[in-house]
Amino acid sequence: MTDFQNLAAAVLAGNPAASDDALAVLRADDAELMDVVAAVGRLRRRYFRNTVKVNYLVNLKSGMCQENCNYCSQALGSEAPILKYSWLSPEETLEQAGAGIRAGASRVCLVASGRGPSRRDVDRVAETVGELRRNHPDVEVCACLGLLQDGQAQRLADAGVDAYNHNINTAESHHDAIVQTHTYADRVDTVRKAAGAGMSPCSGLIAGLGETDEQLVEALFALKELGSDSIPVNFLMPFEGTPMAGTWELTPARCLKILATARLVCPDREIRIAGGREMHLRSLQAAALHLANSIFLGDYLTSEGEQAQADLRMITDNGFVVQGSADELAQRAHVVETGPTIRQRGAGTGVLPNA
Ligand code: SF4
């Protein structure tokens, strides 16, 4: 057995990975890449079998943010030529979300740029969510509106928002190098407020921001501690017109190892391949599905993604099924139908044991 297999076996046996284990996976030799995928992929299969959760983003409000996150095309000072618009109408939001749901998304993520929502913004989103839930009762709704003030998380939860996304983005020790208009503690506070209101906390990171290996591992353990149920792993998209333009620190193999490290540290959490998937993983996207169990379908907030049909084909071509799809439900039913076989031999019976 390889060291990676031993490591995966230990985690499967209930011994959580330590920082050194995470660093060993992150720093694996490229020649060992498929050994890493084979080993850590066992954790993915344990908790998520062969399912892939499909999420769909709707950018409710784009650009014109007053915060200075240096990786973000919507930030103060960004000259990236992105779409800029104020709040979508509820009708347009429903139309956009409906397209993603028809394509197979089981979670819709409603995102708005800005430091955080006003009371009116929260009311607006709550109203839209109510309508979305009436039309699509089985679809999860996640909101991502920035830093929350007291009471706003509860208002969103009461409106039917299932999850709230607010990424920590990077390690606490690297945070102030990438943004100065809010603190790491501000971000953690919002994740805690969301969880406290009963919403599922969704918080992740961006790799390729100049962080060290140790800082990447630090961020993953922080997300585990924070209780993030779903962990979007973004790979920096260095937009022209932002301070990070021209920053290319990632290779496809490195991205795969980052996803493997995330899975090792947080084996039972949803690991979502997020922004930068196509650009950075390139031909390793299918291999990445053996580590992550969730992707975004279609376009990102300010950049275009892969054709949705090509992504869906990649999922099925590689033996995975979309969570909540007819194929997945049929597989689930099969598991229930076959169920465990009740023992009728060995101890307590007159029949020879299975030995
Ligand atoms: S707060 Fe959000 S929208 Fe604003 S610059 Fe930061 S990441 Fe971009």
UniProtKB/TrEMBL annotation:
Binds 1 [2Fe-2S] cluster. The cluster is coordinated with 3 cysteines and 1 arginine. Residues 50-274 form the Radical SAM core domain. It comes from the Bacteria. The gene is bioB. This is Biotin synthase. It catalyses: (4R,5S)-dethiobiotin + (sulfur carrier)-SH + 2 reduced [2Fe-2S]-[ferredoxin] + 2 S-adenosyl-L-methionine = (sulfur carrier)-H + biotin + 2 5'-deoxyadenosine + 2 L-methionine + 2 oxidized [2Fe-2S]-[ferredoxin]. Homodimer. SUPFAM superfamilies: Radical SAM enzymes.
